[in-house]
Amino acid sequence: MCKRALSILLCGFFCAFFSLGTPVRAAVFDLGELSTCKRIFACGNSAAYFYGYTGTTVISSRISGDCLTSRVNVSGAIYAVTHSGRFTYALFAVSNTDYGVIRLNADSGDYSVFDIHSDSEIDPQSIAASENGIFLLSLNGIYRGVTGFDLNGNKNCSYSLPRGCERLFSNGSSAYAIAGNGELYRLGRSNAVYCAKTTYDANISDAGEGYIYSDGQLISLSNGSTVYCGTRFAAMGKNGAIKSDSGLLMTSADGLIYLLNSDYTCTVTDDTQDTAQSESHLSREGTDIFLSAGTTVEQLKNMYPEIKTVYNKNGNAVTGRTVCTGYSTDSLSVIVLGDVDGSGTLSSRDVKELMRLQIGDSQLSGVFLKAADFNRDGQVDNRDILLIAKK
Hints:
It is a single chain. This protein is mostly beta strands. It contains 4 helices and 34 strands. It has a 7-stranded mixed β-sheet, covered by helices on one side.
């Protein structure tokens, strides 16, 4: 297939807040070219990428120390875009029934174009990509399937998901599919692997490599765990969930938080907020629920409607009060981060108990020991003590 791209515009923007490519605290980049896009998206991996399309034009901006914006025009209408690794992909019409894909290297502005060779009808409303190829929705019966293609447009695999496939998306360098029952699957070369659960019609945005944000919850694509945030956007930083109720898009990359503002400037901040993890209202991992201090029984039930009853440490049902470490539901254990004495609040008693733990003079165990890891970094240390003391 001959290249149908008509032009490419590369623009570099350097910010005085950066020195030798290392952020000091915050930086602002101008991504005004994205304002012309019909739809825009974000992807965070080794760098942050904001990309979108309008008509026959795909635009992609890469931010990593500096900013590079690439624009490519194609000869047919663009139906869907995605980003994986360093590459932005756009699916566009070649004819009424045939499609092509442009693969734009957002780090350099180089691109290639290839035709899609499919033996089944393609639904062009969604596309995903991995390091080795792309994935499209196929119409093969009652439910939509997924067909994989190599980077020459040749079919190399196909998948059937429970109740079909509703949508495709990319995260990091991997491709994912949302099944008709809300299950999320990672698409490999020969199989689809279950990784998490949402709803089939959920709104999904990128929240950094390995995470998506869906209807108020930060979802891990590696283990299916969730963090309830309840804000417009959230992304996973080095110290936990970072939330925002402003802006157009948000993601994280290489330990930094990238917020695309309504004026199409992108604010980049490092993730050193001491309260980053403690501001996450809820995280569910296995049979444990991790809460911030002050969460009430009613709030917990609203977060998880399947929870009908909350019990105190004596096994009695409770209502109308804040929950404490050691509480439980019919199937889950409740852990209030920092509440190591089971009072439901953070006080000097918790700090003293953690100090005793540090010198080996504490018998903390079970859910109370889990509550001691206030910043959820996998270890109990002086940083947890300092964070709790600040409360």
